[in-house]
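Hi support team,

I submitted a single chain yesterday and got back a structure, but I'm not sure I'm reading the token output correctly. Could someone confirm the output below corresponds to the sequence I sent? I've pasted both exactly as they appear in my results page.

Thanks,
R.
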Amino acid sequence: MNDLETPRLLLHPISPADAEHVAAGSPPAGARWAPGYPSPGERGAASRFLTTCADTGDPTPFCSYEIRLRADGVVIGGIGFHGAPDDRGSVTIGYGLVESARGRGYASEALRAMLLFAREQGVSRVRGDADTGNIPSQRVMTAAGMRLVDEDASLRYYLAEWAA
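Hi R., thanks for writing in. Yes, this is the structure output for that exact sequence:
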């Protein structure tokens, strides 16, 4: 599968070999990782991806993607689906950036691209959530076109959906 492109980013689908490096926190030869990548969240996502590959096969295109800067190819974070669409055409998405890349609109840009991609793949709804105190992540989802649909004591839940 090819990279998804935005004006400033390349969203690169990770392979099982890539995921092994991310899970181990050890870049492959020639990779350019920003300081702080991978975060514990990215390492966990890579481990889940590897488990999915072992259990049910590679879920691509509903997998994890590295967020790379187009200008120099440096990996600044990750974004991805938590699995293939369910029987209602729904997927869950998550994302994260290294601290030095935050506050520049990269997460919103990546999320908008992934929402468009999901819609093009026939997905009818994309869900996401953020801790109640994580205002920047809530702003990312709102900026990307998701709407707040529920909340509880610890999380705020967001949704993007389209008519079938």
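A quick pointer for reading it: Residues 39 and 79 are 12 Å apart (CA to CA). Let us know if anything else looks off.

Best,
Support desk
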